[in-house]
Amino acid sequence: MSVYTEVSRDQLVAFLNDYSVGALVSYEGISDGIENTNYFVTTEQGQFVLTLFEQHDFGELTYFLDVMTFFYQQGIPSAHPAADKQGYYLKKLCGKPAALVMRLSGRGVNSVANIAQCRAIGDVLGKMHSVGQQFKSHRVTERGPDWRQQMAEMLLPHLDDESAELLRNELAFQARYIELDLPSGVTHSDLFRDNALFDGDELKGIIDFYYACDEYLLYDLAVAVNDWCVDERGLMDTQRYEALINAYSQQRELSENELENFNLVLRAAALRFWLSRLQDKLFPREGELTQIKDPDAFLNILQQYRQPLHYTTL
Q1: Over 80: is that where the pLDDT of 64 sits?
Q2: What does the pLDDT look like over 131-183, one tens digit per residue?
Q3: Cα 272-305-250 angle, rounded to 5 deg
Q4: pTM, rounded to two decimals
Q5: Residue 185: what are its φ and ψ, rounded to 5°?
Q6: Could you give the domains of the chain?
Q7: Do 36 and 54 contact (CB within 8 A), yes or no?
Q8: Which terminus in the chain has less CB density within 10 A, N or C?
Q9: Over 90: is that where the pLDDT of 31 sits?
């Protein structure tokens, strides 16, 4: 969530006229994240997040908004889009697809997560994976093994020798990822600490479903573990890990095959975000409030999983 497309007050007022939300009171750009243009919008009748989509077309976005609406209707605390006066969730603003989403209370977890927050995320993700089996629409992941291979080839010439060798070795190790016989379904695939809003230790909701896709459910869990279960040094923490996994398992029990392959999937999730952050660092896009996140955080996590007998092999 950044600002790549500037929206004037007059443009926003005209956009909001199609909604029954009252007059515009204020708005401001959001600097967190890296993919889309986002604004906090306050009107006479509520608070919203306005998103202008920089990477997706209208056809793709219908899926994302359907995912958000589905989970909200299933009782998952999550952001959901507001419909305009004609009943549509998706419109156009400044030449870009745009949606107005209800703003949830609470804040993202900006520091390391505590045990209670890890437990809450494990619980809600397990529920999402259970009820998500009823979701009928499908979308192939755009950040799977093919993307990881292509991105690696683009980035390898820009890496130092040690990092390049690690990347080549990791791609070889993960080559069998596509052959794993693991439960799949709709996944969030980006459930980071800034995509879950808390009031203290109380989870208020999940946001930013714009990487949602069909994937291994275990991959979705791995993405969460890699961000929520690190300590102040960026190292995986046993207590946080066990709190998240145990809470998840109360809602959805992991299969024997998932347990056996968890180390590989954790490494695939770490590799995906190391590569995407390297891309953002080495090939940045221009934006008014663009935020570039540190690739080394996920390189460090990946290196931990490469150590023999790492505890997350279960």
Answers
A1: yes
A2: 999 999 999 999 999 999 999 999 999 999 999 999 999 999 999 999 999 99
A3: 85
A4: 0.89
A5: 165, -170
A6: 9-102 (3.30.200.20), 115-313 (3.90.1200.10)
A7: yes
A8: C
A9: no
- Token couple for 164: 């390049």
Retrieve residue 139's tokens.
């979308």
Closest by alpha carbon to 219, among 296, 256, 150, 272? 272
CB atoms within 10 A of CB 146: 12
Q: Name the amino acid, one letter, at 22.
A: G
Question: Phi and psi for 177 in degrees, rounded to 5?
Answer: -55, -45
Residues 6+ apart with CB under 8 A from 40: 27, 28, 30, 47, 48, 49, 50, 103
Cα distance between residue 52 and residue 37, in whole Å: 5
What is the reported pLDDT for 21? 96
For strands 46-52 and 90-93, give the pairing: unpaired
Q: How far is it, in rounded angstroms, from Cα 229 to Cα 122?
A: 11
* Segments of 189-235 assigned E as strands: 196-199, 202-206, 213-216
